[in-house]
Amino acid sequence: MSYARLTLVSAVAVGALLVLGAVRPGTVQADVAEKYFGCPSGYSFQTSGNNARCYLAGTASTANIQCGPGFVKTIDQFNGGKDGCQNQLNNMVGNYSCPSGYSPKVQAGPDVCSKAGSPSIMAPNIEKNL
């Protein structure tokens, strides 16, 4: 290669380095964080394979047991068995009932009627940044 040609190639290479040297690879948009989606407060983030969801367990609601007319609630305090309803006039004992949609829950102490609440499920929708 001749001296003139080598000088020209060197000058072009140095010029290219000066122009390209100002741009650093990998720093484009470095100050912008990557976005993702999460769950609202109280919800748990759950995944299955490539799917994700926000899940909040349903809360159970309770109601009082119901005795028929003339009967009062009696609590089985000795062995935690099922409570009953007792007639105040002749000491007859009967069973109690629960409101529609509720199931009896026999427990130590007063029995209750309970109904499970349905869980809340939604797609992750709260925008967050890394």
Whole-angstrom Rg: 37 Å
Which bin fits the share of residues in helices? Answer: 10-25%
Q: For the largest sheet, list the strands in their spatial order.
A: 2-3-10
How do the SSEs run, as a string of H and E?
HEEEEEEEEEEE
Backbone shape: rod-shaped
Brief digest:
The chain is an alpha+beta fold. 15% of the residues lie in helices and 32% in strands. The chain is built from one helix and eleven strands.
What labels describe this entry?
alpha+beta; 11 strands; about 130 residues; three-stranded antiparallel beta sheet; 1 helix
Describe this structure in words.
A 3-stranded antiparallel beta sheet has the order 2-3-10, with no helix packed on it. The protein has 1 helix and 11 strands; from the N terminus they run αβββββββββββ. Residues 3-21 have low confidence and may be disordered. It starts with a helix and ends with a strand. It is of the alpha+beta class and 130 residues long. It has one helix spanning 3-21; strands at residues 35-38, 44-48, 51-56, 61-63, 71-74, 84-87, 93-94, 103-105, 112-115, 120-122, 126-129. A hairpin with a 5-residue loop joins β6 and β7.
